[in-house]
Write a structure and sequence with these properties.
Helix content: over 70%
Structural class: mainly alpha
Number of domains: 1
Strand content: under 5%
Number of strands: 0
Shape: rod-shaped
Largest sheet: none
Order of helices and strands: H
């Protein structure tokens, strides 16, 4: 079990990474 704070940080990092990946894909497609 991880603490709630650590889980939230991981989730936020994943979200940020996903958003960055999407933007990067858009740039590549353009």
């Amino acid at each position: 079990m991880k603490c709630i704070f650590c889980n939230n940080v991981e989730r936020i990092e994943k979200r940020i990474r996903n958003n960055f990946d999407k933007k990067f894909h858009y740039i590549v497609l353009l």
